Fold this protein.
Amino acid sequence: MSKRLCLSLIAAASAALLAAGPASATGFANGDIFASIGGGQVQVYSPTGTPLMLLNTGVGGYTTGSTTDKAGNFYVTNFSAGSVTEFDKNGALVGTFASGYTNPESILFNKAQTAFVGDAGQNHIHQVGGADITVQIQDRGTDWIDLASNQTTFYYTSEGTTVFRYDLVGGQLSPFATGLPGSTAYELRILPDGNVLVADTNFDVQLNTSGQVIDTYNFSDSGMFSLNLTPDGKDFWTGSFSTGNLYEVDLATGSVIQTIHTGSGSLYGVSVYGEQTQGGGGHSGVPEPGTWALLLMGAGLVGGAMRSRRALATA
């Protein structure tokens, strides 16, 4: 087999690996930022802050929390309309994914691809297609939820100064943290080491596994409402409803890497395509089993071709 053919097979395998992320040049790519800007809209930016496309749910009102499933489809909560809207991985509107809620604020998927919705208007974590989970609240519903890696423990805020926990097996657990320093705790994200990031109105804070504040991230404004990790987990994006600004922040140092000025007075949610989540239900950019099989087959063909060439050379 010729060297040219071997290189072609390697190129094909590499192309398959790249295709494990969003395949379309017009679709979402790892690191893209989704900013819920209100009016039923979500502005999509590239990792460098370039506007890429504008998603419109068609239902108006506030858009808030968002996420993706394993396939890369995008979901956003419609706080005002009491529903969740789905878009495919290329940004095309699919339609209503779930409805009948009061003020859905956040959404996530577990590894089994069951969706859960946090509702600022109810003391429930809604399981899409299943029974609601009744939990303890503080000031306003379940608001923002996140799922631990064990797939059973939810962390959530209730627009107060507490991070609550509820376990699907053990029921209501003791709070993870109380007496947070900001005026209102909003979106949160569990980190790989068990620490927790919280958008805490006046600033963002990082809590250790005991619920103690170990880092405070200050900005030139307040109204810190939303946050999510980048795919590599080294940085996070956080948004202010006061200014409509999005900040990319170095998780370790707290340095602001870049700022996106959305121009929105209704910036109430941010997510990142391929973001790190401990619940593990979103798009990660890791090849699916079928893609791995293709890659291995390609590698086998290349290896076999090279062995055949060596055999011919020594015959």
About this structure: The two ends are 15 Å apart (CA to CA). The chain has a mean pLDDT of 88. Residues 147 and 279 are 5 Å apart (CA to CA).
